[in-house]
Structures are given as C-alpha cells and as structure tokens.
Amino acid sequence: MTTPATGLHEDGSPERLAIDTIRTLSMDAVQKANSGHPGTPMALAPVGHTLWSQFLRYDPDRPDWPNRDRFVLSVGHASMLLYSLLHLAGVKEINADGEYSGDPAVSLDDIKGFRQLSSKTPGHPEYRYTTGVETTTGPLGQGCGNSVGMAIAERHLAAHFNKDDMVLFDHDVYSLCGDGDMMEGVTAEAASLAGHMKLSNLCWIYDSNQISIEGGTDLAFTEDVAARFRAYGWKTLHVSDANDTVALADAFQTFRDTHDAPTLIVVDSVIGWGSPKAGSEKAHGEPLGADAIKATKKAYGWPEDKDFYVPEGVAEHFAQSMIDRSRPLRESWDMTFATYREKSPELAAELERMRQGELPDGWAADLPVFEADAKGVASRDAGGKVLNAIAKRVPSLMGGAADLSPSTKTDLKFDGAGSFTAATPGGRNMHFGVREHAMGSIANGMALSYLRSYTGTFLVFADYMRAPIRLAAIMEVPTIFVFTHDSIGVGEDGPTHQPVEHLATLRAIPGLVTIRPGDANETAQAWSVALKQADRPSALIFSRQALPTLDRDKYASAEGLQKGAYILAEAGGGDPDVILIGTGSEVSLVVDAYEKLRAEGVRARVVSMPSWELFENQDAEYRDAIFPPAVRARVAVEQAGSMGWDRYVGHDGATITMSTFGASAPLAKLQEKYGFTIDNVVKVAHEVMQGNGK
Asked: At what angle do helices 379-391 and 520-532 cross, to 10 degrees?
C-alpha cells in the first residue's frame, strides 16, 4: 500500500485536511453509489486544491462572472473531484430561472446522492445541470477540445471589447486531462491548433498515472507526450509527484508568466493514492470496497468510521481562500463594467445580449430574397450569401470550415471580418484546418463562451463530428453545424463522398434541429431559424448542385420552413389523392411530378419537409392538416436512406430513397439509375393511389 507522503504539507494543516476531504468524499460517494471512479479524484486532490485555492480566479458567489477562469474536467469520469471542489468552495447555485438562489451548487446531500436519479451529481459533469460545471464531459478528449474553444473565445472577446483603460476579458482556461484524453485523436487535433494559435491563456494539466481500464498504459501507449506537445508549439512542464503542492504551485505560476504559447503540465500521480489498490486499474472504474476504504482512511489518519466527513473549518477555509483572491477581482470588474457601460453603451449592450443568448435588433434586416429562377443556385451558395448578410449585423457570429470554406461557402467576406490568428484575434473567420472532430468540440467551447459559433464541412464528414454534435444537443448550446455536398448530387466523387445514411443519423439525435432546405429562399429561412435557436444546436444541410429557385407567387412562401413542413402546392378540390413529400434537392423534382399529375387530373399535394424536428414541435392540429390521417397515399422522395420516413408515409405509402451506396458518375446518370426522375415519381404516385383505392 502506498502511504501518505511527508514533508509536503503537515498532517492537520488546512491544506492537508482539505485535500484528504476531497479524497474521502470521492471514495465514499462512489462506494455508496456502488458505481464510479474513485482513484483519479484521490490522486488529483492536491492538483485540484492547489489550483482552486491559489490560482483559479473564481468568485463562489458569482459563478457566472464573465471574466472568471474556466476549469474543464476533461476526465469527466473523475467527476467527484469537481463535485468535491464545488462543495468545499461554497459555490452558489444559479437556478433554472437564472437567479442566484443562495443555495449551494453542490451540497453534502448532493454528494451522498452521487449518480442517483435527479441528483445534481450525475456520473459525468453536465452543463446546465449543475452550477459550476462549464461543459459536459464524458467522451474523452471532448473537454480538451472545448477548452481550446473557450481560450479562442477569450482572445476574441478581449480583442473586441477591451479598451486600453478598461479590460473586460483576460481570464485563463484550465483543463484537467488524463491518459485516455491523450490517446484520443480529437485531443491531438485540438492541441495542434492551440499551439498554432499560441493560446497562452490555455493550460492543460495532464494526469500521467499510466493506468487504463485494461491495465498499465504501456499495453498500448508509450509515446513521449511532452515531446509531442513541444512539437505542437506548447510549453511543457513536469511535476514528478502529484502530492508536491509547492511544485504544482510553481508550475501554475510559470503558466501565468508564459505569454507566447499554451502550457502543458505533466503531473505524475498514483491512481487511488493511499489505498490498497493504489497504482492498479482496480482503483479506476469501480468502488474500492468497505475494507479498502477503512484501510485508506487509516493511512490518511482519517476517522475510519466516518463517511462523508468534512472536518470543521475545512470548507470555510477553502472557500475563504478563493473569496480573498477572487472577490476583489470580480468587484473591480463590476466597477469597470459600470464605467464601460457609460463610456461604450453600445458595446456594453452587445455583451449583455451575448450573455443572454439574444440577437441584436434588426439582425435579419438584410436577409436575402431570391427571385424565381429555373436554373437556380446551389443551396451552399445561397447559404454563403445569407450567412454574410446576417453576420454583418450579428457580431458574435464566428466560425469557419475544416479547410473547406471555398466549397462550403462559410467564409465571411465583408470588410472587417478578417481571420482569427495569433496576431489578429479579432478576426471572425476560423481556419480549423483538416480537423473535423476538433472543429466541432472547439465550436462548442466557443458557444459556451458567448459566441454564436458555426462550422462547415461536407455532410459525409458528419461521422467525424458525431460526438461534439451530440454533446451540443445534450448541453443545449446553439452551435450551428453547416454541411454541404449533401447527396448523390456529389456525382463523380463517388460513394465515398456521397452521404446516404447521414441524414437519418443526424435526425436521430434528440434536440438537434436538422434542416435540409429545398431552394435559395428556404435556405435563407433555414439560417434564420438556426440563429433564433437559443438552447439547441442546428445542422444545416446544403447542396453542391444548383437547385431551381421556386416562384413563390405561384407556390407557398418559404417562411413555411419555420414549421418544419408546409404545403408548398395544392391541386385543390378537396382532400388530395396523393401527397408528395420532398426535402432539399428533391423538392423541385417533386414539384415537377406534381405538375404532371395535376395535368392528368390528379389532386396532388406537395409538402416541402426540410426539418422533421421543427415539424414534430408543432401541435397535432397542424401536423394533421399537413398529413391528413385519411390520406394514406403518400410518397417521400429524398436522395438518402429510407430510415424514419415510415412515420410520415405509413404502411400504405412509398419512398423513393437510397437503399445502397451511390456510384461515381455524372448526376443525371445517377438520378436515372436510382429513380430520381419525374416519370418514376409519377409512376410510384399512381401505384400508391391504386393501392389505396384511388
């Protein structure tokens, strides 16, 4: 058994008591829940305590102070470390109404309810759920990516808002990472970009305990992490004993004194420190067991028969250490902002709107309206025009693409937009490089720091971004994910670049608003809807090929997109004989088929259905008006998989969709091969009408 170190902090000192309180709360909570990860919080308690008590600029009474330092626990499975810190620091709750309730963010009872239903201490930290949690971390590496986005946001906000005599933003971002984070590719992508951007406000603390679930990390991981990060352009430091709080403090101060690069602090630790299972994978992902806990408490000099024990004065001393350092900084910030509001009222109002997730007045005043045009325009091109028109009026809108902006049309081209670089942090065009996975997690970090962030890549690469898209939905942050090249319309690039299953997988994510507009005016409405989302992300799905711009004097207004599905065209004369449903590039195809059916005397209805999510948000009366239950002859047309369409076409309807991967050929040949032609839509419409007695 590893025994407590001596000479680093005396037994009985406030520091030692607080550190061991974090350790014992963590192992008691995991034991009571019979689930969790006790070893890492036990090992990193000195790291967390040193950072929070001596360096983190964070006022426990104002956990939403804009210039607070951010602490990201990328090793989300070690959540009890964060919950213990929040409890001992006395962080106050912000309730669901956004008010300071005065209650603790994490009470001792909350810790006792670790991992239980409706507790504020879930298995992994969850943003919006527990005050003091800056981002939802679970999938390893995501917190690392988020922290890069937060650091980018600080740099951008400082460039935009700070005045020579009034500094509103100069905070730092800390992320606690582990061996698992370092193995994940997203971490490498994010670290590479952070080094390139010289984000000296970013500090990662790498817990090098050399233990993974299967055993020692040497089973699969033997690289020199510090050397890798130096190659990325990071400053690297090494603390050889996680219990050495003096060395930890020196490392944090060195980070604070570094102004030309992000900092990686490699900390050697012993997982499950002080327990009979120390240094073993048995201390990682399972409770220590009652006997081992008693032995560990004895090694700490702790009362062996007390669970969830917080010695008198420990919490008060810890909280006061944070208050003494951070409250004067926060109060000074408040006074600075009061002066700022007087001298720069427009900028002050802008910042307040950003904090509230609100858009400026008149933000949609320049929203383009596109004239009817049979040749039309690709929705990616229309999307670029709409984005630029909106971005001029929404200063917080910032983003870019994974080295694809010329193709995704996601670059901001107006005067003053500029590029975000180490030398020009006020720029609004992000150059993420070919790093789709990190791009998503970085954009989420930006969204968590008041920016309206967006990303851009081809739809087929949505697979690379699944984790950050899903986490944006879980966190309810309004990140906008732009995807172009959305179908077999990619043509000659072939099946590797033709997404057929991706729409279904995006639609399957709860809370994600997926929108596939059918022409340029629907594209304008799609951007409008995405910008108005305050608490959920959006995926905008655009075409590479030109789409006819429909005559809105003849067909319904594109504003119908805001309800997810709307009647675009109606034959009239009673209930329709058949309903034709289309999305994206297939809307114009369905309209052409409708015109042919109408000429035959068929009462057809065209429903443009760009967003299932928005449609499902409508009441039953509206949904039934679009799809009358009595009209069972329905045909859905989409150059993607059929999964999910059965809920709208029913057992008696049909789909013209993709059941295989695509092929490399010109688009017209592919449309003929897979049945996306006027004649085939008309043929299938007649078949479903006949099957329904029409």
From this structure: 40
Question: What CATH topology corresponds to 14-329?
Answer: Rossmann fold (3.40.50)
Domains 14-329 and 561-692 are alike in CATH topology: yes
**457 in Cβ contact with 486 (< 8 Å):** no
Q: How far apart are CA 680 and CA 433, in angstroms?
A: 42
Query: What is the per-residue pLDDT for 476?
Result: 98
Weakly modelled stretches of the chain, pLDDT under 70: 1-10
Q: What is the pLDDT of residue 10?
A: 55
10 Å CB burial of residue 387 (0-12, 13-18, 19+) is buried
pLDDT digits (tens, 9 = 90+) for 386-404: 999 999 999 999 999 999 9
CA angle (414, 377, 466) in 5-degree steps: 75
- What is d(CA 71, CA 143) in angstroms, rounded to the nearest whole number? 10
- The answer to whether residues 186 and 231 touch, using CB atoms and an 8 Å cutoff, is no
436 tagged catalytic: yes
pLDDT tens-digit profile of 170-182? 999 999 999 999 9
87 is in an annotated binding site: no
**Structural domain spans, the chain:** 14-329, 373-548, 561-692
Report whether 604 contacts 577 (CB < 8 A): yes
284 labeled binding residue: yes
> What is the C-alpha to C-alpha distance for residues 292 and 301, in angstroms, rounded to an integer?
14
Distances (CA, A) of 283 to 58, 149, 222, 293, 449: 31, 32, 21, 11, 35
Does domain 373-548 sit in CATH 3.40.50.970?
Answer: yes
3-state percent breakdown (helix, strand, coil) of the chain, nearest 5: 45, 15, 40
Mention the CATH class of domain 561-692.
Answer: alpha beta
The answer to whether the beta carbons of residues 442 and 146 sit under 8 Å apart is yes
3-class secondary structure, 365 = coil
3-state secondary structure 423-449: CCCCCCEEECCCCHHHHHHHHHHHHCC
Distance of alpha carbon 115 from alpha carbon 121, whole angstroms: 6
For residue 295 the two structure tokens come to 């032995």
* Residue 226 parent element (H or E): helix 225-232
Contact 663, 643 (CB under 8 A): no
**Which pLDDT score is estimated for 634?**
98
- Which of 125, 23, 43 has its CA nearest to residue 84? 23
pTM to 2 decimals?
Answer: 0.97
State the virtual CA torsion across 427, 428, 429, 432 in degrees, nearest 10: 90
Tell me how many degrees the CA angle 642-644-650 measures, rounded to the nearest 5: 90
Are 539 and 513 in contact by the 8 Å Cβ rule? The answer is yes
Rounded CA-CA distance 611/526 in Å is 9
Q: Give the number of C-alpha atoms closer than 13 A to the C-alpha of residue 556, restricted to the C-beta side.
A: 19
Tell whether 676 is in a known binding site: no
Within 10 angstroms of residue 636's Cβ, the number of other Cβ atoms is 24
Cα-based angle 255, 436, 197 (whole degrees, multiple of 5): 30
Contact between 79 and 121 under an 8 Å Cβ cutoff? The reply is yes
Q: In this structure, are residues 573 and 603 in contact, taking their beta carbons and an 8 Å threshold?
A: yes
pLDDT at 692: 84
Residue 43 structure tokens: 């090992």
What is the end-to-end Cα distance of the chain in Å, rounded? Answer: 81
Evaluate whether 280 touches 272 at the Cβ level (below 8 Å).
Answer: yes
| Marked catalytic residue, from 436, 522, 586, 613 | 436
Residue 36 known to bind ligand: no
CA dist 626 and 292 (Å) reads 63
Strand order through the sheet with 480-484: 429-431, 397-401, 452-458, 480-484, 538-541, 513-515
